[in-house]
Design a protein that fits this description.
The complex is a heterodimer of chains A (about 220) and B (about 300). Chain A is an all-alpha fold. Chain A is built from 10 helices and no strands. The longest helix of chain B has 25 residues, at about 1-25. Classes of the chains: A mainly alpha (about 220), B alpha/beta (about 300).
Amino acid sequence: MEILADNLDRFVEGIGATISLTVVSWLAAFVIGVTVASLRVGPIRPLRGAATVYVELVRNCPLAVLFVLFFFGLPSIGILFESKFVSAVIVLSIYTGAFVAETVRSGVNTVASGQVEAARSLGLGFSQVLGLVVLPQALRSVVAPLGNLFIALTKNSSIAYTIGFIELTGTANQIAVENAEFVTAFAAAAGAYLLLTLPSGLAVGALERRVAIRR
Amino acid sequence: MTRTRTRTLWLVAMLAALALVATACGDDDDDTGQTSDTTEADAGEAPEFPAGSTMAEIQQAGTITVGTKFDQRLFGQTDPRTGEVEGFDVEIAKLIVEAIGPDVEIEFTETPSAIRETALEEGTVDMVVATYTINDARKERIDFAGPYYVAGQDIMVPAGNPMEISGVDDLNGKRVCSVQGSTSIENVREMAPEAELTEFDVYTKCADAMRDGRVDAVSTDNVILLGLVEQYGSDVFEVVGNPFTTEPYGIGIPKGDDEFRTFINDRLEEIFTNGEWADAYERTVGTVDDEVPEPPAVDRY
């Protein structure tokens, strides 16, 4: 237990790194996800195809593999991101974006077809139908699954440690090795992740109740 | 009422989850299933040991589990063709077990750095020979026989040494890579506080990062660096050759087994003097290091 008190500042720093990595990646993943979902339900065939390829490729590849391919593989074709934080954000948002896209698409499918027909008969174009009528309703119906993705992302951010970005898990590992106390350090990390994810779960629940579509 | 019940359920679920996580962390027996037995062919006389001693127990069981690295060039690495582990650590383990009984079979189990103490404490291995630096923090949980080898921390740079790094002081202000949780990274942190550190889980990632220009130098035990030079080619990397620490490699055994520790220490001194230690070195590390060093003095603390 002593090692926790002695290293509290480092744990706090690790938690901070996890939070910033998660939040920035989430914002990017959300933008990617909504865009890709829109392309997948859109009328332009090549874009629809490209979006499908993206989702299927990324969704079916383990995150740890994506990290290694991105960080150690891309330099061999001349693409190199110096910053580990930026690299981690890119990989995490590309990965999570695929899941967000599928979730949003499933939300789009729940919007009654009468809504679209009504919007079209008012003379709205595709982007207006999507942006003003379909997406607002779709997003409101998928708050809970999006919340799940956010929690998954919080935990997935720990894999950034394989490319040397030291966040919460990396900090726990450092402290564990320095003090030869693995169980204590990782139990503390587990507790810290709960501190992060439980409130997000509660917040998502509250948000869901607020925006739920009552039929 | 339902509300409180839901809340209680929540608490129970959370506690259960935490308990699960804790046990999962504690249960670190890395059974990779990849084991290789190596029975020594020459059937010499099996020595007698006092009843109840670890040596007698091992002799009776006819088998011993030894933890080693499976990915450490020159010290302990699996040969992909045969599945056998090879290297200096493996040779040392064989030489020690030979003295317990020529018929004792060795089962090698993979023990990466992070799980070595736990594996010994939980008894999943009888001893660990895995480029294991002796230090006080570790001695609180386990005991060390040896050292059987003293490595030194050195620096690897791109071939031609473009930044003209000649010693540890030159690492200040440079981007330096080493492995998470290693004594090497601690040493750099202390001796070159201005160095910008990158940490990975394995050294090959450091080597790749240096090849890609992400870091300027890789620093760890010289023998490991020599292994990397061998792997990547001497036209890619070179070792500076100015060691700045001494890293005594010891043999980890469960805490408190002084009888076993004395036995291993005696055996080490025996192979130091009879030349078997030097032979083992030549066969393994000697393939990249021409000079066989003097064997270290055993530390009987």
